[in-house]
Structures are given as structure tokens and as C-alpha cells.
């Protein structure tokens, strides 16, 4: 699919008509006008050819030709609008990223890139055409993801409710080895003092003191003489006050203090069986964002960021000072450019690549994302056990995917309804 300037199309057509006695050359025809771009007849013909080849390979039957053409035209219209949206928000797909995508396509077909090129040639598709189509599809996909993601709203209560459902399903097979300390509140006793003592015990446990020793010393619970050891139990076998507090915490977790009718309780997950642990890498990075304007070009932004890098390396200013002064990301600029510990999958692809690959303490060269131009420095990386929050992450992903797919459909309908579309194919064929 080609995006042409209407004036250029008119000029080409006029020149073609004005040449007398020239050999007749078959030229590609504009089939559909989409806003300020077009879908060519060759785009439709190539799509129909590809569908026919794929259907023959899979033994699948296709609908009637007129129905199939209508479906292909609508698909190409939507693709063109999405590519226009990608251009509007400044999505760029460089050759490195494109080559990686093509390698992935080849691998998914159990082919080398050379074998993929050969199979394309057999099907009548040139490799340059294929590359540009893949480039456009990546750009359209990134634009769609960026613009639709902003429309997805997930409430914390939704995540908690689904996580609880998922946790209950998982907990059916998980076993916990539980340690328990109970501090009793006697009649007439000041409950606040007992609560304070419970808080102090939790702090001592977090600092590494032995749970069994503290249980022998302070607990008034039924397992005090066993060092608070309740042994191995599934949630359904636990006292209700225990089960209500356990939400797939991992080994070593301290829970509490929490209260009941008899006093305050502290639990320790001594060990877990049947629960897959989840470890993730969190990155603490800081960045400076500068956006191009009608006055400040991409080249000008890069020069400004390179000057900032020079000043930091020369010791003339700190990264944090310059982030406060220049960064156009107000949230992080107020924190000296710091983004805090995050998993890198929260970032857009170009930014994710930088924070995943940069050595700690090194400042990147300027790079561009849909938000503008950045430099980034990785301050630290850490491995974090996320077993206790893995279920919430899973619940969030499920909810996000559901809502994202719903919003994609709504967004596509909106941009399709708001586009200028004119079918000119029949008029051209009549001439």
C-alpha cells in the first residue's frame, strides 16, 4: 500500500495524457482514496493473491469473489488509516528493528531469511515490497498499541477481585508450613499496649530474630510449646483467621500483626510446597526527555541532549540538575529524572531496549520514542521475589487484555467512521 500526495497523482496523470503517440504503458490504478492517501489496485490484487495461495496451502475454501474483494478493501482501508495514525504520532521503524522482525517471521516458519526470500519470490512477492509491508505493519501496530493503551482503565478493586478468584483456584493444591505467635488481650488489659508489643515483635522478626524462640517466649497460642509450629496445611485446613490472611505469600513472609477476639496474631510462612516462585528484575533508571517542535528539529534535540551528556561527564552539572532544568517529563523531572524501580516491560520498546542493555552507570546516546527524544542512565538493577504479587500481575494482564481488545475494536470503528474514504476503482475501470 502506498501513501501518495494527491497533487503528485494529478500531475502524473496529466503528463501521461499529454504525451502524444507514446507507447501505452499499463500504470497502477488508484482504487480507494483514504484521507490524504490511497490504496492502489495492485495492493488489492496482491492481497487477493496471498489469500488464494494461503487458502490453497491449507485446503480452505474462500467466499465468493465479490465478498472477498469487499473484505480485502475494508482491511486495506483500516491498515492505511492506522499507518496514517503512526505517521501522525511520529512512529519510526528503523532497519535494525525491521530486520529482527523479519528474522522472527522466518524462524516462526522454520526458515532462514534466505529461504523466506526464496519462498516469497515463488509466490510473486519481491523482498523489498515484503520489507516495506512489514515495516508498515509494525508502525501501525505500535500506533494502535500506544493510542489504545491510553483508553484502558483498570480499577484496583477489579484487580483484587480477580486475583482473589485466581488465588482460590491455585490455593487448592498449595501447602504452607505455618509458624504462629498469639498475644492475648486479657479482660481489663490495655489493648494498645498489646498491639504495640506485637508490632515490636514483627520488627524483631524482620531484623532476623528466631521465630521459634520468640514464640516460646511470648506466644499464648495453642502451639506455643512447639515454638508456634502448626506444620504443613492447605488453606482449607487452617483456622479461618489464618486462611483469611494468606494470599499466596512466599517462603519467609511475615504476616501481621492482625487482631481477633482473643488478641493479636503474627504468622510466618516457614515454607511453601506447590507454589511456583516468581522472580523479576527491577530497574531503577533516570532519563531526560526533550520533544521536537516546529522550531526545534530532531537534529537540534539530539545536539541539545549530546551537550547535556558532555556537561555531566565533564562534571559541570549533575544529571539530576539537568533533568530538573530541561526534561519535559514533569513527573520524573521533579525527582531528578528518576523513574524508580520498575520492570522494563512497562516502557515502550525503544526505552525498554535501553534499560535492559545499558550497563549500570552509563548514559545512553540520544534515542527516539513516540514521546520524543531521550537519554537514559541505569542507576541499579535488583532481583525481586514477586511470588506474593504474581497473582495480581496475572489478574491485571487478564483484565488488560480483555479491555484492550474491546477498546481496539471501538478505536478502529471510530477512526474508520472519521476517515474520508472514496472508492474510485470502478470509475477508473470504466475509463
Automatic annotation (TrEMBL):
Keyword Iron: no
EC annotation from Swiss-Prot or TrEMBL: 5.2.1.8
Superkingdom as given in the UniProt entry: Bacteria
Keyword match Amino-acid biosynthesis: no
Family annotation (InterPro entries): OMP_Chaperone_SurA (IPR050280), PPIase_dom_sf (IPR046357), PPIase_PpiC (IPR000297), PPIase_SurA (IPR023034), SurA_N (IPR015391), Trigger_fact/SurA_dom_sf (IPR027304)
Chemical reaction(s) catalysed: [protein]-peptidylproline (omega=180) = [protein]-peptidylproline (omega=0)
A GO MF label: unfolded protein binding
Domain PpiC stretches: 173-271, 280-380
GO annotation, cellular component aspect: outer membrane-bounded periplasmic space
Endpoints of the signal sequence: 1-22
Keywords: Chaperone, Isomerase, Periplasm, Repeat, Rotamase, Signal
GO biological process: Gram-negative-bacterium-type cell outer membrane assembly; protein folding; protein stabilization
Location(s), subcellular: Periplasm
Pfam families associated with the record: Rotamase, SurA_N
HAMAP family from the UniProt entry: Chaperone_SurA
Domain remark from Swiss-Prot or TrEMBL: The PPIase activity resides only in the second parvulin domain. The N-terminal region and the C-terminal tail are necessary and sufficient for the chaperone activity of SurA. The PPIase activity is dispensable for SurA to function as a chaperone. The N-terminal region and the C-terminal tail are also required for porin recognition.
Record's function text: Chaperone involved in the correct folding and assembly of outer membrane proteins. Recognizes specific patterns of aromatic residues and the orientation of their side chains, which are found more frequently in integral outer membrane proteins. May act in both early periplasmic and late outer membrane-associated steps of protein maturation.
Protein name, UniProt field: Chaperone SurA
Organism the protein comes from: Vibrio panuliri
Recorded name of the encoding gene: surA
Amino acid at each position: 500500500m502506498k501513501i501518495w500526495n494527491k497533487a503528485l497523482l494529478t500531475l502524473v496523470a496529466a503528463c501521461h495524457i499529454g504525451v502524444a503517440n507514446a507507447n501505452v504503458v499499463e500504470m497502477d490504478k488508484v482504487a480507494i482514496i483514504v484521507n490524504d492517501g490511497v490504496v492502489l489496485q495492485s495492493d488489492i490484487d496482491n492481497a487477493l493473491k496471498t489469500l488464494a495461495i494461503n487458502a490453497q496451502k491449507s485446503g480452505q475454501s474462500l467466499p465468493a469473489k465479490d465478498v472477498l474483494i469487499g473484505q480485502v478493501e475494508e482491511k486495506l482501508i483500516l491498515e492505511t488509516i492506522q499507518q496514517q495514525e503512526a505517521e501522525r504520532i511520529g512512529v519510526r521503524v528503523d532497519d535494525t528493528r525491521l530486520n529482527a522482525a523479519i528474522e522472527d517471521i522466518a524462524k516462526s516458519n522454520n526458515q532462514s531469511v534466505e529461504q523466506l526470500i526464496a519462498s516469497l519470490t515463488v509466490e510473486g512477492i519481491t523482498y523489498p515490497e515484503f520489507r516495506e509491508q512489514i515495516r508498515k505493519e509494525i508502525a501501525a501496530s505500535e500506533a494502535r498499541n500506544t493510542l489504545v493503551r491510553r483508553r484502558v482503565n483498570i480499577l484496583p478493586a477489579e484487580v483484587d477481585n480477580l486475583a482473589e478468584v485466581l488465588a482460590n483456584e491455585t490455593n487448592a493444591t498449595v501447602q504452607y508450613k505455618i509458624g504462629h505467635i498469639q498475644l492475648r488481650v486479657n479482660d481489663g488489659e490495655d489493648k494498645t499496649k498489646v498491639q504495640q508489643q506485637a508490632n515490636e515483635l514483627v520488627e524483631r522478626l524482620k531484623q532476623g530474630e528466631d521465630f521459634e524462640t520468640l514464640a516460646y517466649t511470648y506466644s499464648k497460642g495453642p502451639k506455643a510449646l512447639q515454638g508456634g509450629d502448626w506444620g504443613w496445611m492447605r488453606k482449607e485446613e487452617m483456622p479461618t483467621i489464618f486462611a483469611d490472611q494468606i494470599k499466596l505469600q512466599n517462603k519467609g513472609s511475615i504476616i501481621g500483626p492482625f487482631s481477633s477476639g482473643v488478641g493479636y496474631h503474627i504468622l510466618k510462612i516457614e515454607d511453601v510446597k506447590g507454589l511456583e516462585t516468581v522472580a523479576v528484575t527491577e530497574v531503577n533508571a533516570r532519563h531526560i526527555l526533550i520533544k521536537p517542535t516546529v522550531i526545534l528539529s530532531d537534529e537540534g534535540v539530539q545536539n541539545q541532549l549530546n551537550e547535556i551528556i558532555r556537561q555531566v561527564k565533564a562534571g559541570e552539572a549533575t544529571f539530576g540538575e539537568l533533568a530538573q532544568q530541561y526534561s519535559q517529563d514533569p513527573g520524573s523531572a521533579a525527582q531528578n529524572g528518576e523513574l524508580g524501580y520498575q520492570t522494563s516491560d512497562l516502557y515502550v520498546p525503544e526505552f525498554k531496549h535501553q534499560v535492559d542493555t545499558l550497563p549500570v552507570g552509563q548514559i545512553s546516546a540520544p534515542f527516539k520514542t513516540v514521546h520524543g527524544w531521550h537519554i537514559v542512565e541505569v542507576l541499579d538493577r535488583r532481583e525481586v521475589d514477586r511470588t506474593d504479587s504474581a497473582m495480581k500481575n496475572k489478574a491485571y494482564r487478564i483484565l488488560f487484555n480483555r479491555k484492550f481488545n474491546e477498546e481496539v475494536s471501538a478505536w478502529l470503528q471510530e477512526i474508520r467512521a472519521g476517515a474520508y474514504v472514496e472508492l474510485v476503482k470502478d470509475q477508473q475501470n470504466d475509463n
